[in-house]
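ZP: hey, is the flavin-adenine dinucleotide complex queued? I don't see it on the tracker
AM: it wasn't, my bad. submitting now with these inputs:
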Amino acid sequence: MPSPQKIIVIGAGIIGASIAWHLQRRGASVTVVAQTIGGVATPNSFAWINASWGNPEFYFQFRHRSMAEWSRLAADLPGLPLAWCGGLCWDLTEAELDAYAARHHGWGYGIQPVNRATSTIIEPNLANPPDYALHIAEEGAVEPVAASELLLKDACRQGTVMLAGIEVKALLRKGNRIVGIETSQGAMHADHVVLAAGAGTAALAASADILVPLETPPGLIVHSRPTQKLLNGLVMAPHLHMRQTAEGRVVAGSDFGGTDPGENPESAARELFARVRTSLKGGEELEFDFHTIGYRPTPKDGFPILGGTDAAPGLYLAVLHSGVTLAPLVGLLAAQEIIDESQDPQLAPFRLSRFAQAGEGYGLRKSRDALS
Ligand SMILES: Cc1cc2nc3c(=O)[nH]c(=O)nc-3n(C[C@H](O)[C@H](O)[C@H](O)COP(=O)(O)OP(=O)(O)OC[C@H]3O[C@@H](n4cnc5c(N)ncnc54)[C@H](O)[C@@H]3O)c2cc1C
């Protein structure tokens, strides 16, 4: 029997955790190396699992597939803090909501138009329920740090080695192949290196002369103290996205990606929290606890970067916004691609090769239309 492939996963956020877990299930010899267990963007996420409006069909289908993969993961991991709580959405004009519903319904998304009376039944504590909204019962949320920790704990139980508190300083190359990593504790070698370091991905890739065009926009989220149940599911109101976490905190941003913290994050947080209070019946009882500012690891064209690159065999990249929605599918496909050396057709639009590399001009190589 061939010896298992030795694989280093850099990063222990929701993406690194999911990839490590799936690789371990496929019998690889996995070592996770990360500065922080549970991630950097991951703890600051709104953590809405969705395939909502604003994306072309190929990306919708990818996200929708990952929503189903969350249910598969929940069946394999008892205690996963996942809730298919549904989303009530009215953050568009009525005409835009209709266009969104028609398009996504045609793609197979479970959208139901609802009036004020039904909105009130779905979310009885809204101070000002919408006259017209869309209800998407199949949307959900997960507590992202607990999910990452559970994935890592289960992977370690099956043999994964977790090295936390270690900084990876560079990728190690032999010829053009990536053969390991240089860390604060010395060099480590492997058959494959998975780079799932969130916002830290671009710098590490650059250490091997690989350009990963990444932006890291900030997003501020407010958290109330835990309170009685006020929200049943996700609320996507104009300029206010909210949900209640498993421990009872109401969390909110002016958008799920977080509010722009601006020059004065404290005052942006207080202003946002004031809106949360007025939007809920009994909201005056809500107590502000803290705010977070997260930096979304967002490839320059907004779509994930997933897979290997001809420029550096042995390296597998996984960097994306919407990492919470996509974690189970990314983990599954990364493990398939690395272990089986197969290619999933749905990953074709997400390769690094769509961006130019050094010497080619630094930008998008193909048009967005060519991706769809
Ligand atoms: C405000 C906000 C709201 C969001 N809302 C949603 C949402 O509603 N739905 C959704 O799907 N997504 C959402 N996202 C995006 C999602 O949270 C991220 O895509 C996801 O958390 C990224 O996970 P990750 O594991 O790639 O990165 P991270 O969680 O950032 O983890 C990176 C890991 O890499 C390690 N690392 C980095 N550099 C090094 C190094 N040099 N050496 C060692 N270790 C290193 C870190 O220690 C960490 O363990 C949101 C993000 C933010 C900030």
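AM: back. The CA atoms of residues 87 and 234 lie 4 Å apart.
ZP: great, adding it to the tracker
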